Amino acid sequence: MQKPVLLFLLLPLMSTAQEREHLDKESGYFQLGVRNTISAFSDDNANGFGYGGQFRIRVLSRLNTDWFADYITTDISGMAKREDLHIGWSVLAYPLNYETTKGKLTPYILAGHCFDYTRVSLNNSNISKDKFSSAVQAGIGAHYNITDRIDVSLTTQYMMHLGYDVHADVHLNYEGEKEIEIEKQSIRGLEGHLLISLSMNVRLFDMWDQHRVRKTS
Amino acid sequence: MTKYKLIPLLLIITLGLSAQESSQFIHKHLMRADASVVAGTMYMHNLSNVYLNGNLEYYLDNTISIRGDANYLLGSSGTTEDLMHLKDNISVMLGLAYHFKTNNHLDPYFIFQPGVAYVSSYSSISLAPSSDKDLNTRNYKGSLSPLSSFGFGANYYFQRFAHLFVEGRYVHGRHLSQAPSPIFLNELRITFGLGFNMFVMKEKKRPV
Fold it and tell me: Fewest C-beta in 10 Å: which of A6, B33, B106, B150?
């Protein structure tokens, strides 16, 4: 009579052990990737295009970290140029499928922080204004696993800059001609933009070599 | 006359034999490099360009490789609608290639490479169209432009140390400078030539 009760009590422990076995398959990997980014809905009402790269360190099977750098340029009505430099990190959580399997999607949510530099400069002149600030970002995305080692990731995130906003304001003058003015806010504010990134990443090595250790033990 | 016809035939036979003799060259730790001339057309502006390209590629396994490219503009012809010309276009790209598996020495692949280009331009205003001397030019400072590129290509490893290649790709970008209007760097590029391969590490033999 006591035996079935004991077995029943052991069942949850067995499933935890199985899950841990599973966890070790995914965590610990170092990934390296390159990406292109589209910046939209900024205060300048213009879309930007950028390139960058990232590396990822997967700390748990359901948790990844992404360390990135981007350089984005934006044309503002053919009258000015905006340049954005981002260096930051994000935490990626996999609420649904988290296994890296060829041909499967791995959706994720992400949130993080970055440091940034922005410069807006007028064409045909040496006038420019810039700022250093930090930002927070959050969004969603998915990896598509081309093979067990390589994935293509699409991420959409909103980045909110915390600091003195710099942007170009295009307006029409009394004669109906376009005029542009660069403004730098004197008080700290919130200004953001939507970033859509397409990246290709490769799994390079197991950082803490636990897979080999587990295999040999 | 027949002697000249025989030489290419003999070359093809030799290549064919060397390809049959060895096993597949496409595998992990293969490193390849090439230098070639690239023809490009910026179809949005009717600009035709010629580049010198050099690249280095390392195979992480049989299907994945990391590849870096450098391109230097040798010459450009044509002007944009705003009479703008390209002066410099130097780009570096880093990305990944996915190689489709085959049972022979052909190595078709898809490549994705973001990058950055240093581009500078100048405008020409013709004061007297009949004479080139009367062109009034204005140079604009160069700037960095983010790029994205992807394309398809194929290598043919006919020999242990060399291979033939052909590649076509699309490059996307926009050059923003102090010039009155941006120059779209969207371009179709094609190249082919001879590349070199070396095996930097021997693959470990699997236990039977």
Answer: A6
Q: Which residues in B have their CB inside 8 Å of a CB on A? A: 60-61, 63-64, 66, 94-96, 98, 112-116, 143-148, 172-174, 176-182
**Which CATH number fits the domain that encloses residue A35?**
2.40.160.20
- Percent of chain B as helix, strand, coil, to the nearest 5: 10, 60, 25
Give the one of A74, A121, A147 whose C-beta lies nearest to B64's C-beta. A147
Q: Residue A79: closest CA among chain B residues belongs to which residue?
A: B180
Rounded Cα distance, B62 and B118, in Å = 34
- B15: helix, coil or strand? helix
Q: How many domains does chain A have?
A: 1
Please give the residue range of the domain that contains residue B148. 25-199
Structure tokens at A73: 């340029």
Q: A20-49 pLDDT, tens per residue? A: 444 457 888 899 999 999 998 877 678 899
DSSP B132: G
Q: How far apart are CA A128 and CA A105, in angstroms?
A: 44
CATH number at residue B84: 2.40.160.20
Q: The tokens 């052990």 sit on which residue?
A: A17
Q: Which residues of chain A have pLDDT under 50?
A: 1, 15-17, 19-23
State how far the Cα of B109 lies from the Cα of B92, in Å rounded to an integer.
20
Q: DSSP secondary-structure letter at A20? A: H
**Residue B8 belongs to a domain:** no
All residue ranges of chain B with pLDDT < 70 are 1-24, 126-135, 200-208
The CA distances from residue A182 to A86, A165, A167, in Å, are: 21, 10, 6
In a domain, B113, yes or no: yes
Give the count of domains, chain B: 1
In-domain check, residue B14: no
Whole-prediction pTM: 0.77
Domain limits at A164?
Answer: 2-216
